[in-house]
From TrEMBL:
This is Secreted protein. The keyword Signal applies. Residues 1-33 form the signal peptide. It comes from the Bacteria.
């Protein structure tokens, strides 16, 4: 009888060990690898998108627009726009004067794996519409 129970006990032990290993692997953080991203544009007008690693959960996407362009003129307006090119989603800040320093940030928590994100600094020289507009686009970050 002992000879029949030994293989069965060994099989149960092996199954329990495998299930425990799978459970541990399933509870570990699902860190997504990001490729691309960074900044584009001259120092006076930049758009950036980066991954902020939070130590295991995967991180957040940070969209930024920076500008220091004192001779732009009082009519000029600009803003940061964040894009998810995969779904078409976008988020935008209010328009600000171009002749004042700009440092806009937007933090996107819980980004979606496989999506393509980018930041854009939109510059409207006449301040009202997109005629003669300039678009400074960050490199695409794939999460």
């Amino acid at each position: 009888m002992i000879l029949h129970a030994l293989p069965r006990a060994a099989a149960w032990a092996l199954a329990a060990t495998s299930l425990a290993g799978a459970a541990l692997a399933g509870t570990a953080g699902t860190a997504a690898a990001a490729t691309g991203g960074g900044c584009a544009g001259p120092v006076t007008k930049q758009a950036c998108v980066t991954l902020i690693d939070d130590g295991g959960r995967g991180g957040d996407i940070l969209f930024e627009a920076r500008s220091d362009w004192p001779d732009a003129g009082g009519d000029c307006r600009m803003r940061l726009v964040a894009f998810d090119d995969t779904t078409g989603w976008q988020w935008e800040r209010e328009l600000r004067r171009c002749d004042r320093p700009l440092d806009y940030h937007y933090n996107l928590p819980n980004p979606t794996a496989g999506h393509r994100y980018r930041a854009e600094l939109q510059i409207l020289p006449n301040g009202k519409n997109f005629e003669f507009a300039e678009f400074v686009k960050s490199p695409v970050l794939t999460y």
